[in-house]
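Take a sample.
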Amino acid sequence: MKKRIASAMLALCLVLALLPVHVQAYTVASGKCGTNLTWELDNNGVLTIKGTGEMINFSSESDAPWYNKRDSITSVVISSGVTSIGNKAFYGYKNLTTATFPLTLTKIGYNAFSNSPRTIFINYPGSMKQWRKVNVPMAFLYTIKVNKFDLELSANPMNWGTVSGGGVYALNSYVTIRATANEGYRFTGWTDGSSLINNSSSYTFILDRDRTLTANFETIFYIVRFYDRDTTGSSTSMRTGTDGRLPSLPTVTRQCHTFEGWYITGEEDPISTDTVFTRDIGVTARWTEHHTPETLERREPTCTKTGLTEGSKCSVCNTILKAQEEIPLAGHTEEIVYGKAATCKETGLTNGIRCSVCHTITKAQEEIPLTPHSPQTLVRVEPTCTATGLTEGSKCSVCNMTLKVQEKIPLADHTEETIVGKAATCAETGLTDGIKCSVCNEIIKPQIPIPVTEHNWTIQNEQVTVNPTCTTKGEKTYTKMCTGCGQTKTETEELSEVEHTWVEETIIDFRPTCVLSGTKHIERTCSVCNECQKLPSEPMPATGEHVEEEIPGKPATCTEAGYKDYSICRFCYAFIKEREDIEPLTHDWGAESETVTKPATCTETGIIAYTKTCQRLGCDAEDTRYVTISAAPHTEVEIAAVDATCTAPGWTAGVECSVCKNVLKEPERVEMAPHRWGPEQEEETKPATCTEEGIKTYKKICAVCKKEESRTEPFGPNGHTVVYLSEVPATCTKDGKTAGEECSVCHKVLKEQKPIPAAHTNLVPVSGRPADCTHWGQTEGVRCDNCGVFTKPQEDIPPLEHAWTISGGTETITKNPTCTEAGEKTITGGSTCSRCNAETTDEQTVEIPPLTHQWGEAAEEVIKPPTCKEKGIKTITRLCTRDGCQEKDEKTEELDLLAHTWGEWKTVQEPTATEAGMKERDCAVCGDKDTEEIAATGTTPGGEDNKPEEKPGGEDNKPEEKPGGEDNKPEEKPGGEDSKPEEKPGGEDSKPEEKPGDEDNKPVTPPGPVRYRIYTPGSISGGSYDVSHSSAVQGARITVEVSPRRNYELEWLAVTNLTTGQELHLTQRGSDEYTFVMPASSVELDISYDSGRYIVYEEPQLKTGPNAWYYRDRHIYHVENGLVPDGTHITRDMLISVLYNMTSPAVISNSIGCETNDSQVWATDNGIVPDIYASGLWGFDKILSREQAAMLIFRYAGYRGCGTAQRQTITRYSDYSRLRPDARAAMSWAVATGLMPGTSASTLAPQDSITCGQMGELLFKFEATILR
C-alpha cells in the first residue's frame, strides 16, 4: 500500500512539473521621463507611466529611456495624471499591441507611435467628445475604444422651458430625459437635428452613441396689434393671458376726431376685455371727424404764373376740406425786337416779337444770308536766291477776306564759284577745294582740312649699350631722321636673356619594400646664376623581400577563444608563420542558491530567485531564474450605503479589501431625489414703457435644501400717448415745417415734422441790355417782388472786340492756313468795324480759319494672304491731296478663311459584309484630312426605305457622324462646348448614303442594323491591348483584353459614349479581361499602363488641432501656415479621405486617415470615383496626378450640389492632347474657376504629380469659392 501511495505521489509530481509555470509580474527596469513622471517595465512587457504633468519630448527615438527594451514591450499604460506623450516616445515598437490612455491626457506628440503596428488597440475611459479634445497628430491612425458617450440636451427657445437628464453615460445605458414647460408655454416634442423622435416630455432610450437632443416649446398666448388708423399707420401690440383675453385696451386720441372703439376687420361690434382671441390678430381704431373750416383766398393768374380758385381747410388740424384748383396762365403783351442788315462778312437778322412783361419770345428773329464778295487781284512776286516769291492771289475789296491764297515760290538757285585749296605736308595741314555763290557769297561746299602727312624716318646710327645674361635682359640704341623735314629722334630696343648652364643630381624620395614601389627625382643647378630646379618624381620597382615580426599568443577563457604565437611581415602584414586558434572553454557552474526577492500579498504575486555561479578561476559569470509565488486571498469588508437627497446622489452598499483597499464590488449610483418646491412669488423687476416690454420675475424655494429657482415673463408695452404738432408755414427767408405727432410720455417722435424749404413765391423778370464793342452789357434776371432778393442775379457782359474789315487800306496774308493750323492776315491803311462802324488807320491782325483734309482715293494692300487655316490681313491707306499736306490715314482689316482644296477620295479600309469601311481625302494647301465612312456591303442602299433603324432618343440617337465639307471641325470629345455628337457634312442630309433608284430598284433583303465605331488610342507605352470588334451594333458585348509589359500594370481603362460624354460600365471577367455593352453611339477607348510608382509614405512632422492637414472637425489645412513642408506627394486615397471627412465627421470605430476602406466605398457609391476604379484598376495607394485631382474635385463639387457648368477653352495648351477624354471637362472647369491654373502660360502638365502643399492650396480655394 505504501508503495502505491509513493508511486501516485511521484506521478503527481511529474505532472505538476510538466505544467506551465505562470510568472508573477515584477519590475525589470525603471526611471524618470518627466519632471514629475516615472516609468516601470515588468517582465510581462507592460510599460507603465505614472505621476503628473507632461512627458519629455524626445528629439530621437533612441533618446527614450526604455528604447533598449523596445522589443520586449507589448503594452503601454499611461496612468491618470499624465497630460502628454512625448515626441517619438514609442517610435518603431514592432511588438506593441495595446495602449491605455487616461482622461487627463491632452496631447500626443508627433511621431509618438509612428513606424509601430497599425493594429495597436487604444483603450480610452472617456467619451468620443472628450477624445476629440486631445491634440492628436495627423498620422495617429489607430482604433480608439470608448466606453462612454455624451448626451447633450437643450431647450428651444431657451427660456420657454427646462430640460434634465443630460451628461456622460456608459455604453448601452438606459437613459431617461425630461422636459418641463414654463408658464405660458407647452412642450411639442424631442428632435435630433431636424427629425422628430418622440412627443413625450419624459423619454427613455438606450444610449449607444454621442447624441444631441432638443426639447421644443411653443407659446399658449397670442399677440393683438392695435392700428390707430389703418394697417399702414402707427401701431402698438399687447399679449393675451392664458385664457385668450386682454387685461386692458390701449387709449388713443386724434385731433379733430372722436374715438369710437377698436374693431376687427369685417365685424360690426368693437372688441373689449371680454373678447377671447384664438390667434395673433390686428385691430383698427374707428373715428368720427369734426373740423373747423377756414377759407383759402382766390389768386389771379399772370402770363408767367397760374392762379388758384377759392378753397378751405380745417383751422385746427390743417386738413384740406375743399382743394384749390389751378387757373391757366394769362396772355402776353407783345413788343417788336428790331433786326439788322447783312454784309459779305456777317449775316443779318429780321425783326422779331416778344412779351414786354415776361420777355418770352413769341416770334423768333430769322437769319439773313451773307452778301457776295468783291474780288481784287494780288500781284505775283518773283523769288531770288535769298528770298522766296509769291504766286498771284485775290481778296474781297470790301471785307478784305482772302479769296485765293498766294502760295510761296521756293528760292532760286545759287551762281557757283570755286574756292582753290592747298596740299598738306608733314609739318603743315592742307585744304580741299570749295564752292560759293558769286551773288550772295553763301558757302555751298565748305573747304575740308587735310591732315599733316607721316614722317619718313631713316636709321642713321645703331649701338648695343647693355649685354644680356641668363637672368637679365640687354639693350640696343637707334638714331632716326625724317627725309622730308630733317627732324631727328633716338629709340631703344630690349634684348632677350640667354639659356642657363645646368648641373644635375639624383635624389631618392622613398625606398622600395617587399610589396611597395619607391620614387626618386632629379635636382639641377645653373653654374652661372646658381638657380635651382626640382624635376618631377620617377617610380622605383618593389624589392619582393619580407621583414619578419613575431606576435605573442593569447590563452582561451570561458567565453572567448585564444590563439598561439605567430609572425608577420612588418611592411605588408603577410603571415610568415600561420596563426593557430584555441576554442573557448565552457562555464563550470556551482550549486543553485534560493532567495525570496518579493513576498506575495493579496494584490500581487511574489518572486523566488535561483542563482548559480561559475567556479572557473578568473570567471565571475552568474545565471538567475525566477519562479512566481501565488497571491494571497482578499479580506472583504462592507462599504456602507449612502441615501440620495435633492442636492446629492446616493450610493448602494459595496465591498472592499481591508488590506489593499481595492474595491471588490462597486457601489451603484442612486439618482438625486426631486426638490420640494414652495409656491411662486411674483415681483416686477422691470416696468413696461411705451415701446419696451416689462419683466416680471417668479421665484420658488425648495423646502428641503433651500435652493432658489426663478423664471422671468415679459409684459406690456403700454403704447404711446399721442400729441399733435401744428404745421409752420415757410416764408421767403425762413424754412417752415409740416404737421407732426409725438408721445407725451416718452417724447418719441411718432410722425416727423418734415422741413418746408424757404421759397420766393412772387418772382418777376428784370430786363437786361446787350454789350457792344465799347460798352458793358447785362443779362436778364429774376427778382422776388415780396422781399426784393434776386433769385437769378443779372451778370455783367464784357464789351465785344471790334470785327475789323478793310476800308480803303491793304490786306496782306502773313501766314497761310493749312489743313490743321489757322493762318493770319494783316490790314494796313484803313479798317472799319462791321459791328459798330468804328474806323481806324492802325494796323490790324486777323485770324484765317484752318482748312480741312481733302482725302484722295483709298489704296488697299494685302500684307498677309488668307489660307484655309489662317485669316489674312489687308491695309487700307488714303492720302490728303491738298498741296503741302503729307497726312496719311491707315487702317487694317481681316480677310476671311479660304475654303479647303480637297483632293480625290482614297479608300483606306475596305468595307465587309458586316463592318463599315473608311475613305479619306487631303487638302492640297494645308494637308488637313477629311474622312468618311463607307457603308458595309451587307447594307444595300436604295431610296427612302434604306434609312438606318431609328431608336428612341431624338436626334442625339444617330449613328456616328464624321465631319466634312463646311462643317470640317476636328473630332469633338465630351466636355464643355466640345461635348456634341460628331456630325457628317450636309445638315439634314447627314444620313447613310443613298444611291439613286426608282421603285423597282429596292433591295430584296431588308437593310441591316446600324453599326457604331469603336475608336482606340493606337499604340501606347507600357503594354498592348486587343479589342474584339472595331465597330458593333447596339447591345453587342465587346471584350477588351489588356497585356501590360514586365514591371508594368494597368493604371487606367475607360470607355466613353461620344454622344452623351458618359463613361460606360466595365465588367471584369478575369485578371486581364474586361467587357462592356455597346450603346447606340460610337465610343472611345482610353487605356494607360503604369510602372508601379508606389509612394513610400513617411509620416510628416505636423502640427495638430483645427489646422491639421486632414480635415478634422471640418477645418482645412493650408500650406501658408507651414504645417506640411511643400513637396510631400499625396496619394489618391489621401484626397478621397479628405473629401470624405469634409462631408461628415469621422466614424468612431475607424481611423482618421488614408487607410480606411469607408472613404473608398463612399467615394465609389456616390460617383466621385467610378466603380471600375474600385475593382482594383485605379490603385488607391499611388501618387495622385493633376488631372486625377481635378476630376475628383469636379465630381465632388457635383455631389455637393455646387455649380460645375463653368468652362474655359484649354485647347490652347500645348499638352492638351495628354489629357484623358473623361478628364477634359473637369480640367476645363478647374482652370475656369481658378482652382488649378496651368503650370505655365502654355502647359497644363496633367500627368505631373501634385504635392501636399499644392493640394492644401487647392482645397483652401475650393472651400472659399465653391462651397461658400
Notes: The chain has a mean pLDDT of 78. The chain is about 5% helix and 35% strand. Residues 894 and 1039 are 51 Å apart (CA to CA). Helices lie at 2-18, 128-132, 1132-1143, 1157-1165, 1171-1177, 1186-1199, 1221-1232, 1252-1266.
